Amino acid sequence: MRQLRGQERAITGNRQTNLAFAEAYGAGTIDDSAEAALRWARDCAREAGIRTVTTGTGAALRLLAATTDAKAIAEIGTGTGVSGIYLLHGMRPDGVLTTVDLEPERQTFAKQAFRSAGFAGNRARFIPGRALDVLPRLADGGYDLVFCDGDLMECLEYLAESLRLLRPGGLVCFEGVFADGRTVDSAMQPAEVLRLRELLRAVRESTALVPALLPVGDGLLCAVKRG
Fold it and tell me: Is residue 89 a contact partner of residue 30, using CB atoms and an 8 Å limit?
């Protein structure tokens, strides 16, 4: 093993500090009404026992939506609207977020959060139901970005649907691929972690995708669909 040099030692020694700084960096970069809506949505999620994307992950999603100049985004897992607020902020002003969730009551919270953040009602389309029942009804090649934050056991199916839904140059993103560190843990792991490993391998080996794994939140796996 080669010896680390000066700058590399500093990076290694301060990695946790660096990651914490990156997570906090995106805070306060959107308007006050949206920040208040985010706090409310996070509180609702906490009370319901739902995990939400972190500030760092949200900032990355907003950046990716802006980078693709997204007019149409599909989201698997509405939750209480936290990720949706970040995606809507990154999209074009006339963009529409199509968001799917198995629990309609969660979408009720998200609707209020979007409204409080200042988004018009026609900026989001809420579809209650199981993602694998809903996604086949969405248009081929009609989306600039697909964000997956649903059932981990269905992540490979989400990938297949995303490849169909995305236009060339579009992005697919998967939240939570670190699984709290279990994805790289050599100990025996549950089926959902094994499925995440399959997803990571499939995305990396796909000739149709250009992938990157971003170390924000609990891991954000992103890939661009080749033209």
Answer: yes
What b/e sequence results for 186-216 when a residue is b if at least 16 CB atoms lie within 10 Å of its CB, and e otherwise?
eeebeeebebbeebbebbeeeeebeeebbeb
Burial 148-177 (b: 16+ CB within 10 A, else e): bbbbbebbeebbebbbbbbeeebbbbbbbb
Interaxial angle between packed helices 82-90 and 104-116, expressed in degrees from 0 to 180 and rounded to the nearest 10: 50
Of 82, 72, 81, 138, nearest in space to 107 by CA: 81
% of residues, the chain, pLDDT over 90: 85
CA angle (94 as vertex; 104, 102 as ends), nearest 5: 15
Half-sphere exposure of residue 171: CA atoms within 13 angstroms, side-chain side:
26
pTM above 0.85, yes or no: yes
Task: Give the alpha-carbon dihedral of 148, 151, 153, 155, to 10 degrees.
Answer: -10
pLDDT tens-digit series, residues 46-64? 999 999 999 999 999 999 9
Would you say 129 and 77 are in contact if contact means Cβ atoms under 8 Å apart?
A: no
Q: Dump pLDDT digits (tens) for 132-149.
A: 999 999 999 999 999 999
Q: Is 115 helix (H, G, I), strand (E, B) or coil?
A: helix
The tokens describing 108, both together, are 């009720």
3-state helix, strand, coil in the chain (%, to 5): 50, 20, 30
Q: Where are the alpha helices (DSSP H) in the chain?
A: 6-13, 15-25, 32-48, 55-67, 82-90, 104-116, 131-134, 155-165, 191-205
Sequence-separated (6 or more) residues with CB below 8 Å from residue 49: none
